[in-house]
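SEVERITY: medium
COMPONENT: batch folding queue
REPORTER: lab tech (J.R.)

DESCRIPTION
The queue accepted two submissions in a row. Attaching both inputs and their returned structure tokens so the on-call engineer can compare them side by side.

ATTACHMENT 1
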Amino acid sequence: MEQTITISIQDYLKNIYELTENGETASTNALAKKMNVRAPSVTGMVQKMASSEPALVEYQKHQGVTLTREGKRAALEVIRHHRLLEAWLVQTLGYSWDEVHEEAERLEHVISEDFENRIAAAMGHPVRDPHGELIPTEDLTMPVDSSTPLSSLRPKQTAVIKRVIASDPALLRYLDELGLVPGAHIEVKEHSPFDHNLTIRTGRKSFVLGLNITGKIFIEEQ
């Protein structure tokens, strides 16, 4: 049957993309946890998307789900809307980076392609959103990302923060207070082999970060 891409389906496609962008498949349990819905509901939805025309996902029981070409394009369209909206809210309306996620979540499904093109042009076609996440291009391809997790660095290595994977406003405010934002220069002073905590220096400040944070900050080594 021909599939109408509803808001719910857009949300599924976006989350599947995020779980599979490094080449893995997404299990229904992982998708249920990420979207905070029951696993049987996820199974029913992915089966529906797999049987649509054209199919938006490929799904086999116990083997997880991946996006088809059509599903990936639909996912990237929503992600482009979301990240452009976040950039626009910060650049034009004065939102802070910890305020924009929920607003963009609401707006990403309803803006027209004309509106998308206009805000992109008005901002000079930004490549990254306020968190440093890459924005899919107008032809719906994702630029290549060469960043690596901060958790991979060791003492004496230096880097520049490129992006932060976080939608939790409290975490984003905390990182902002520490100066751990895209563009910040950092140096690793110490590494604990037992708990993998890193002592980080940025500017004149030093602090210890756990793996729960360093795994969400992506850098380019200098």
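ATTACHMENT 2
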Amino acid sequence: MEPQMHDASAVAVPAKANHPATAKLLIAEDDVPLAHFLQRGLQTQKYEVQLAHDGDTAFQSLSTSQYNLLILDLNLPKLDGISLLSRIRPIIPNLPVLVLTARSQMEDRIQALDSGADDCMVKPFSFQELTARSRALLRRNRNSAGGVLQVGDLILNRADFRVERAGQKIELTAKEFSLLEFLMMNARRTVTRAMIMEEVWKTAYDGTTNLVDVYVKYVRDKVDAGFEFKLMRTVRGIGYVITD
């Protein structure tokens, strides 16, 4: 059984590997022993890791240095995690963010994801799972860098966080962008509400929330408004599809 992150000192960290850093990470965590544990552990995975113990320091670091991944605790002093996300997303839209939280309610995780987080982990957690999720976020960001998706006259530019239809710019929030990106990655293929919830919000779909439907409407109103041909369609009883 994998050790759980109840106490940083209780989990041994392997010796640091003698390899060059492959990515630069920032850990924003006010629990100093935990932050140093994560730093040592991730350094063994060949990452360059910097620490910030409050939200203001994290914001300054993100404003002055380029990072490949932010590991963010929500309960930061001076500037909490949600507020930090709202500040950085307009200026660093493509930075992968993995949120750590002691809040176990689904609503708290949804709030973090809606604020711009890419993934969430609830404390206590497995270090092995954290490294796996970090690798997945880094890989996804690397694969999508510079990528352009197109369906008909709709173009989504991942690198510039830009969406246009017939040359007209469409303004989307971070979560709306992620939803449209997922639909366009699966163009001409029907995706279910459960698939959307799991991919975009990183949580299981329990059938009692209309969150997916609400956000699809937000995106549809922006993408199809004023155009005779509607790209986004509802597949009755199943889900949604974007097609030309």
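NOTES FROM REPORTER
Residues 109 and 171 are 24 Å apart (CA to CA).
No errors were logged for either attachment.
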